[in-house]
Sequence to fold (97 residues):
Amino acid sequence: MLREASKSFKEYFFEFVMVFLAVTLGFFAENLRENHTERDEERQYAQSFCDDLASDQEELPELLESINRHAGTATDLQQLLPVGKTANDATGIYGFK
Fold:
């Protein structure tokens, strides 16, 4: 116990430097780890984006066909509305025939 009370300035300074270095190196190590993790996530996001783009390109012809089909139905509806005949069967407009 007497030894603790008789520490010199050098010993206190050395302990301060050691704690400071430990905290600083810990900060840098955490920063490097975080950068590595973010880089991996960026690669995964870019790969996912490319996969989604390829999938969208494959589905595009089917989507265009569906849009054209629905556009034709909308045109039929547009032609029937001004006529105002309530006797017309509307199920044909929606493709339920």
Observations:
- The radius of gyration is 36 Å.
- The chain is about 80% helix and 0% strand.
- The mean pLDDT is 84.
- The longest helix spans residues 9-80.
